[in-house]
Design brief:
Blueprint (H helix, E strand, L loop, with lengths): L1 H14 L15 H6 L5 H17 L3 H21 L7 H17 L6 H22 L7 H26 L8
Helix pairs in contact: 1-5, 3-4, 3-5, 3-6, 3-7, 4-6, 4-7, 5-6
Length: about 180
């Protein structure tokens, strides 16, 4: 019954409409503003936690490879956004990521580690790019970028813990 309740709550949270909080204005260019940015939008929280849940459900090497691939792709895309490179459909990609990552994590879709890494990295590009283009121009971006990477890693960690609680610790021995 406990798992069913968690799944119902996750479906509700994934599908619940939210206001457009994906990328609100930035209060500054500091480590703290970079850290708080991913925590300011429901879409960020759901996507980042879902990556951790997916990693936990896959188990083994996925526990660190899946979140690490998300963070690496997000950071590279953030640099691309900061450099002014173009990427179409960013907000659409972020919205689709919330649903896709949420559904895959929620239903425990099995996939090889490399596929999971590519799957999350694809969506990380949209999140990272959005961070990069919206990074305040008055900063080098290092402190701000370190902040949003740290917050993303924290949310992945929360998702991993939640995923392990849902799936049970037997996933630690998988892969």
């Amino acid at each position: 019954m406990h798992r069913a309740a968690l799944r119902i709550a996750a479906v509700f949270l994934t599908l619940a409409p939210t206001s457009a909080l994906a990328h609100p204005g930035h209060a500054g260019a500091s480590l703290i503003s970079g850290f708080t940015h991913p925590l300011g939008g429901f879409d960020h929280i759901i996507a980042m936690v879902a990556v951790g849940v997916l990693a936990a459900r896959l188990g083994g090497r996925s526990l660190w490879l899946v979140p690490a691939s998300f963070i690496a792709a997000m950071a590279v895309a953030g640099l691309a956004g900061r450099a002014g490179m173009g990427l179409p459909y960013v907000e659409t990609g972020i919205a689709v990521s919330v649903v896709a990552l949420g559904v895959v994590a929620l239903f425990g879709v099995a996939m090889p580690v490399a596929v999971a890494m590519g799957f999350v990295a694809f969506f990380a590009v949209f999140h990272g790019y959005a961070h990069g283009i919206e990074m305040p121009e008055t900063t080098s971006g290092l402190a701000y970028g370190a902040g949003f990477v740290a917050a993303t890693a924290m949310l992945h960690g929360i998702g991993t813990g939640l995923g392990l609680a849902i799936s049970g610790n037997e996933r630690l021995r998988a892969n």
